[in-house]
Request: fold
Amino acid sequence: MLSVEIRHAIDPQTARTFDTTELRDNFHVSDIFRTGEITLIYTHYDRMIVGGAVPGDAALTLDEVKPCGTKSILDRREMVIVNIGGTGSVKADADYTMAKGDMLYLGMGAGPVTFSGEGRFYILSAPAHHTYPSRLIKIDEAANVSLGAAETSNERTIYQFVHPDVMKSCQLVVGMTKLKAGSVWNTMPAHVHDRRMEAYLYFDLPENQRVLHLMGEPDETRHLVIKNEEGAISPPWSIHSGAGTSSYTFIWAMAGDNVDYKDVEMVSMEKLK
Reply:
């Protein structure tokens, strides 16, 4: 079963007027991991698609997605799949076995995508202009950088999977950040990147814990309360940062004008309101 939700782009002036329900309806990502289903959110921010697939007892195939306007989703797109569950399999241009934490890049034209096994598959897709080779990337093949400190509650390791230092893609840049035990802050000091949108997915968060995800213009911040296996869609004009009531892992994904990870405008703590 396939379900697709459309999220239209919201400008910052309109977002300033939103109450909690309106913020969540437009920017919160939830309930995308349903057993026996593929659940997608088609956003109008750089035409990024985020979603989930949980095969359960039967394989699931992702092929035609009507909002894409093509016979098959990868006819004019690239895709990254992240397994956040048990061992599973993905079949597209080849057969791939994915353990938890593995990321699979599928290039434009890789065909329909079939999910099976015990995986919980996080799906990211953006328009493509060129076909790059598909590639399964293990965590030890990712570029990584350690940042922060225990004293500032943000000691973390950033793993860069689909990234210019690792491989080529059209516009998707995807990685994973793991917080050390006792650290809770991510992406602080904050930044914005007006040339690219970003999507977050938080996981490995205990069921009774939460992340307070910060968003909005630097001088008009808002927050979303997010639980395990939920996330946020971040427009190019918005900061994206968060603090949890325990440590956690999150997947970050960008699409837009370029794949330059460092193309950001930093926001100092003094400018946040």
